[in-house]
C-alpha cells in the first residue's frame, strides 16, 4: 500500500471525531482499526442511532454504507444534513448507480462517494479533504458572524450620526431664522434707546427723583446694553465669529446682575429666595459678556420655572475655582427632572412646559455656548426635591 501524506491530521492535537455506519460488522471493525490511528472513531450498525451518537460526541464527519436494510446511506445523509448541516458526509457503496451519485451530490448532502472495495488511501485522502472543507465552512461561518456584528455596529453608528445631523440641520434652520429676526430687532431697539435717553436727560434735570426710579432706570439701561450686545454678537457671529471682541468677564458680576434683574422683574411676588456663595477671588474669563448673561439667565429662568408649585422656593448659586477651572453651581428646590427625561433636556425643542411658555431651546443654546468656551455642564436631579447644574470653564 502506497503511503499517503496525512501530516496535518496526525499532528492535530485534537483528533477529529468520525462516525462509521455499516450494517456489516466485519467491514465496520476493519475500517475502525484503519482509521483509529488518526481519528477518534465511533461505530454503529443501526442508522437510527446516528442522531444520538452525533449529539453525545460532537461528531465532525460521517461515513456511511449506502446499502443498509433499515435505511439507505443517501437517505441517512439527507436526514442528518437537515439536523447537522456542518457535518461532512461520505458514502461508501458497492453497487450504486450513476443517478444516485448525481442526485446526492447535487443536493449538497454528501461530500463524496467512495466505491467498495474501499481503497484506504483514497478514503484517508477524502476524509482529510472533508475535514478541511468542514473547517473552511466553520471559518466562513465565523467570518460571516464577525461581518454581521460589524454591520450592526456600522448601522448603529450611521443611525446615531444621522440623528445628530438631523439635530444640527434643525438647529441650523432655527439659527438662520433667528439671525434674521435678531437683525430686524435692532431698529425698534434703537427707537427705545433714543426714547430712554430723552427720558434720562429729562430726569437728570430734576432734583426730586425717587431713588427707586433711579434703580429702575439703571436696570432698564443695563437691559438695553445687554440687548444691543446680544444683537451685535449674533449678527457679527453670522458674518465672522473672529470679529467679536473678547473681554475679561466676571461671572460673579453676571450672576449678581441677573439676580437683581429677576428680583426686579418679579418684585418678590413669587417668594423665591436667592442664596449666593460667590468666590471673592474668582478669576475672570476671557469671552463675550452677553454669552455668559445668556447661559446663566437660561439656567436661572429654568430654576425659577421649576419652583412654581414648590413649598420651599430656594435657588442657591455658588461660584468657586480650582487650579484648572472656574465653576458655577446652581441648585433649586423645584420639581426635579424625571429620570427618563434627563438625557433629553439638551435636545432641540425638548420642553415639558405649556405651549407659549417654553420653546425647548434654552438648555441647547446654553450647552452650545458653554462648549464654545471648552466648558462643561453637568446635571443632577431628583423628582420632588430639586435640580442642580454645575458649569465649569477651563482657566
Ligand atoms: N431646573 C430645572 N428643573 C426642572 N426641570 C428642568 C430644569 N431645567 C430644565 N428642565 C427641564 O428641561 C426642559 C428643557 O429646558 P430648556 O431650557 O431647554 O427649555 P424650556 O425651558 O422648556 O424652554 P425655553 O426654550 O424657553 O428655555 C424643560 O422644559 C424642563 O422640563
Ligand atoms: Mg428654559
What would you say this structure looks like, in words?
The model is unreliable at 1-7 (pLDDT under 50). The chain starts with 6 loop residues before the first helix and ends with a strand. It has helices spanning 7-11, 25-35, 50-57, 73-83, 98-106, 120-204, 211-239, 251-266, 289-306, 362-372; strands at 17-21, 40-44, 61-65, 88-93, 112-115, 247-249, 273-277, 285-287, 314-321, 325-332, 376-382, 386-394. Helix content is 51%, strand content 17%. The chain is rod-shaped, with a radius of gyration of 41 Å. It has ten helices and twelve strands. Among the domains are: 7-118, Rossmann fold, CATH 3.40.50.2300; 245-394, Heat Shock Protein 90 (2-Layer Sandwich). Helix 7 packs across helix 9 (289-306). The protein has a five-stranded parallel sheet with strand order 2-1-3-4-5, with helices on both faces. A five-stranded mixed sheet has the order 7-9-10-12-11, with helices on one face. A two-stranded antiparallel sheet has the order 6-8. It has 395 residues and is α/β, with parallel strands linked by helices. The chain binds adenosine-5'-triphosphate and magnesium ion (MG). Adenosine-5'-triphosphate is lined by residues 298, 302-303, 306, 332, 334-337, 345, 350-353, 358-364, 387.
Amino acid at each position: 500500500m502506497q503511503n499517503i501524506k496525512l501530516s496535518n491530521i496526525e499532528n492535530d492535537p485534537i483528533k477529529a471525531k468520525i462516525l462509521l455506519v455499516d450494517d456489516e460488522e466485519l467491514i465496520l471493525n476493519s475500517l475502525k482499526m484503519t482509521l483509529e490511528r488518526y481519528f477518534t472513531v465511533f461505530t454503529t450498525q443501526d442508522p437510527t442511532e446516528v442522531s444520538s451518537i452525533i449529539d453525545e460526541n460532537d461528531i465532525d464527519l460521517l461515513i456511511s454504507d449506502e446499502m443498509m436494510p433499515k435505511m439507505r446511506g443517501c437517505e441517512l445523509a439527507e436526514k442528518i444534513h437537515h439536523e447537522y448541516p456542518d457535518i461532512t458526509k461520505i458514502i461508501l457503496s458497492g453497487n450504486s448507480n450513476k443517478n444516485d451519485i448525481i442526485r446526492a451530490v447535487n443536493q449538497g448532502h454528501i461530500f463524496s462517494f467512495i466505491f467498495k472495495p474501499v481503497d484506504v488511501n483514497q478514503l484517508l485522502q477524502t476524509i482529510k479533504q472533508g475535514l478541511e472543507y468542514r473547517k473552511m465552512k466553520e471559518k466562513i461561518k465565523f467570518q460571516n458572524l464577525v461581518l454581521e456584528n460589524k454591520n450592526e455596529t456600522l448601522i448603529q453608528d450611521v443611525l446615531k450620526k444621522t440623528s445628530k445631523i438631523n439635530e444640527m440641520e434643525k438647529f441650523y434652520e432655527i439659527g438662520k431664522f433667528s439671525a434674521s429676526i435678531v437683525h430686524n430687532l435692532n431698529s425698534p431697539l434703537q427707537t427705545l434707546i433714543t426714547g430712554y435717553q430723552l427720558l434720562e436727560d429729562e430726569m437728570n434735570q430734576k432734583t426730586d427723583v425717587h431713588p427707586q426710579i433711579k434703580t429702575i432706570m439703571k436696570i432698564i439701561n443695563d437691559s438695553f446694553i445687554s440687548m444691543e450686545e446680544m444683537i451685535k454678537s449674533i449678527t457679527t457671529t453670522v458674518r465672522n465669529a473672529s470679529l467679536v471682541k473678547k473681554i475679561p468677564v466676571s461671572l460673579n458680576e453676571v450672576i449678581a446682575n441677573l439676580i437683581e434683574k429677576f428680583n426686579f422683574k418679579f418684585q418678590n411676588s413669587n417668594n423665591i429666595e436667592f442664596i449666593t456663595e460667590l468666590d471673592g477671588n474668582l478669576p475672570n474669563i476671557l469671552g463675550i459678556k452677553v454669552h455668559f448673561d445668556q447661559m446663566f439667565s437660561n439656567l436661572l429662568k429654568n430654576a425659577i420655572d421649576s419652583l412654581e408649585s414648590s413649598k420651599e422656593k430656594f435657588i442657591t448659586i455658588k461660584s468657586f475655582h480650582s487650579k484648572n477651572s472656574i465653576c458655577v453651581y446652581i441648585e433649586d428646590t423645584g420639581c426635579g427632572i424625571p429620570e427618563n427625561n434627563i438625557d433629553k433636556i439638551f435636545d432641540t425643542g425638548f420642553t415639558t412646559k405649556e405651549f407659549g411658555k417654553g420653546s425647548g431651546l434654552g438648555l441647547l443654546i446654553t450647552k452650545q455656548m458653554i462648549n464654545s468656551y471648552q466648558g462643561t455642564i453637568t446635571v443632577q436631579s431628583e423628582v420632588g426635591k430639586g435640580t442642580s447644574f454645575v458649569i465649569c470653564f477651563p482657566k
